[in-house]
Design goal:
GO biological process, one term: protein polyubiquitination
Number of strands: 20
Distance between the termini: 17 Å
CATH class: Mainly Beta
Strand order of the largest sheet: 3-4-5-6
Organism: Capitella teleta (Polychaete worm)
CATH architecture: 6 Propeller
Helix content: under 10%
Protein name: SMP-30/Gluconolactonase/LRE-like region domain-containing protein
Structural class: mainly beta
Strand content: over 45%
Radius of gyration: 16 Å
Oligomer: single chain
Largest sheet: 4 strands, antiparallel
Number of domains: 1
CATH superfamily: TolB, C-terminal domain
Keywords: Repeat
GO molecular function: ubiquitin protein ligase activity
CATH topology: Neuraminidase
Amino acid sequence: IQIFNSQGKSKLRFAQGQVLPFGVTLTQQGHIAVTDHHERTVKFFSLDGQALGSWEADSFSWPNGIAADRRGHLIVADWSAGLLAVNDINGQIIHNIRTSVNNNSNCSCPQYVTVDSHQRIIATDSYDHSVKVFSPEGELLKQFGHQDTSIICDPRGVITDGADNIVVSDWGGSRVRMFTPDGEFIEDVLQAEHVQNPWGIARDDHGQLALTE
């Protein structure tokens, strides 16, 4: 795991050999929460790199993206299980959200997840190439993309901005796209001449984007 400053210089590198990291977020306590593909769980670290603990191994089938909400819950996108797992900070399951429209886990592969200011849970799905918006209780409120490659080719990272617009890394389309909170297309933030196959995405307090490419 690495921490960089705003100019892109690496300030700290830690946990090498302890974790096979995929998704990362900050908890309400200001700690780093990372999904670990090696032990298929979530591990926690302080901002100075100290290991703080872990949920039980094999808590998930294949944990990818992770996000924190204002209630202190952590939402994990369990890719091969086709669900979003909502857990408390200790790893106790609050409820699971099936991300397939027909509740068939074989028809959904959630990749990344974020939470907007209204606590709606927003996930990208690489199986049907869509973005899905759920209520905090898990009701599907909106789905867009859904195998229409002119809208989204192959979504990965997802965030929201200060107006709750949804910003998606379209890995297959080599672009970063912005949509309204209701899923209407606004603009391409970045296109193929600026970015190739974007994956993870984050936004700082000044509105700057950070991408993995």
